[in-house]
Amino acid sequence: MWRTIATLSLLWCVLIVVPALIGSLMLDHVGSAASTGRVLGVWLVGYVAQFVVFLMISRRSPRPVLMGWFIASLVPWAADWTAPLSLWWLALWTALIAGYGVWLIGRVAELDQLRRDGVRGIGVVLEVIRPIFNVVVNKDAGRRVLRLSIELPSGTASYEARLTGTFILGEVPESEDRVAVRVDPHRPDRIELIEDEPILRAAPQPSDLEPEIAERLHTLKIMRDRGDLTDAEFATARERLLEQ
Question: Which residues cross the membrane (predicted)?
Answer without folding.
Answer: 36-57, 64-81, 87-106
